[in-house]
């Protein structure tokens, strides 16, 4: 079996983790550009852990400015096998009030400005996104939450908008009527790229507000969000600490094939493939392209 390497992407309000005090920083060059910031690497009781702050320290990057391809490529180069995304979000349901944690199992992508694939002209690939979250990784998150007495909702649909503006009332009401659970600005194309990189992916979505559909909370402000972020961040740090302590030290094969997503994904004939693109894909797709 392959050694597990746990990746953590910290979202709004989570720019570090307590266990990373003695971590070493590593700046990674990728053929896709610059990641959000340096990776922070540490080994805890035999488990390598790699942390990346999605918005960088100080929250200098907006959701649309994040280089998602560079982030996932860098984590892949660091050997990450299982990736947990910590993400602030708004809620469309009364039963998901601020402070609720949701273990998302589905996504709807409403972004339009972002590079959403490592593949394209010169090497076309189609991976399945029917089930975008690795169920085994989501189960480990649920078990860690239970052990820490942190309530979580075990399923939900996350709609990802471009931002950085919050939704209009019409948009918010539309998403609510479609049955979505939460709304955020960062998990797409992150989840798609993790699948293309054959990394098991799961999201811990942390509710900070009711978006603007709620008649008693009809104007989302940064001040409102920040009030909830701190409490959510402390719970998330406890949950992650427990996850790290109990996470399997050997990577468990994904039951839906997240870690083998490229097995039958290439449609471009070998003789028609672009050598320059193949070179850029050495980390992401090296397993199936025959590279180390």
Largest sheet geometry: 11 strands, mixed
Regions with little confidence, pLDDT below 50 for 5+ residues: none
Give the % helix: 25-40%
Radius of gyration: 18 Å
Order of helices and strands: EEEEHEEEHEEHEHEHHH
How are the SSEs placed, and which strands pair?
Elements: E1 6-10, E2 24-26, E3 39-44, E4 47-53, H1 68-77, E5 82-91, E6 101-103, E7 106-110, H2 135-147, E8 152-153, E9 157-161, H3 169-177, E10 182-184, H4 190-196, E11 200-209, H5 222-246, H6 275-280, H7 286-289
Parallel strand pairs: 1-4, 1-5, 5-11, 6-8, 7-9, 9-10
Antiparallel strand pairs: 2-3, 3-4, 5-10, 6-11
Helix pairs in contact: 2-5
Give descriptors for this structure.
11-stranded mixed beta sheet, alpha/beta, about 290 residues, 11 strands
Briefly say what this structure is.
This protein is α/β, with parallel strands linked by helices and 292 residues long. Helices cover 25% and strands 20% of the residues. The radius of gyration is 18 Å and the shape is globular.
Could you please describe the fold and organization of this structure?
Strands 1, 2, 3, 4, 5, 6, 7, 8, 9, 10 and 11 form an 11-stranded mixed β-sheet that branches. It is globular, with a radius of gyration of 18 Å. By secondary structure, the protein is α/β, with parallel strands linked by helices. The protein contains 7 helices and 11 strands. Helix 2 (135-147) crosses helix 5.
């Amino acid at each position: 079996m392959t050694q597990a390497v746990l990746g953590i992407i910290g979202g709004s309000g989570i720019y570090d983790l307590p266990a990373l005090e003695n971590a070493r920083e590593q700046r990674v060059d990728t053929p896709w550009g610059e990641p959000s910031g340096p990776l922070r690497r540490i080994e805890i009781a035999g488990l390598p852990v790699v942390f990346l702050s999605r918005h960088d320290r100080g929250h200098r990057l907006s959701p649309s400015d994040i280089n998602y391809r560079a982030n996932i490529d860098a984590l892949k180069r660091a050997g990450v096998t299982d990736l947990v995304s910590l993400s602030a979000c708004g809620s469309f349901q009364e039963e998901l009030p601020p402070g609720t944690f949701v273990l998302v199992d589905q996504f709807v992508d409403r972004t339009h400005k972002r590079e959403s694939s490592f593949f394209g002209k010169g090497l076309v690939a189609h991976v399945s996104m029917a089930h975008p979250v690795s169920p085994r990784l989501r189960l480990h998150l649920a078990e860690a939450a239970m052990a820490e007495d942190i309530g979580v909702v075990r399923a939900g649909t996350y709609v990802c908008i471009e931002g950085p503006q919050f939704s209009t009332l019409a948009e918010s009401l539309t998403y609510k009527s479609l049955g979505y659970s939460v709304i955020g600005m960062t998990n797409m194309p992150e989840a798609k790229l993790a699948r293309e990189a054959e990394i098991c992916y799961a999201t811990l979505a942390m509710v900070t507000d009711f978006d603007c559909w709620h008649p008693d909370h009809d104007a989302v402000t940064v001040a409102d969000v920040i009030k909830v972020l701190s409490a959510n961040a402390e719970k998330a740090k406890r949950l992650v600490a427990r996850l790290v302590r109990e996470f399997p030290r050997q990577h468990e094969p994904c039951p839906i094939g997240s870690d083998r997503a490229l097995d039958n994904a290439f449609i471009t004939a070998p003789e028609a493939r672009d050598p320059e693109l193949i070179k850029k894909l050495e980390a992401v797709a090296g397993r199936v392209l025959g590279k180390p």
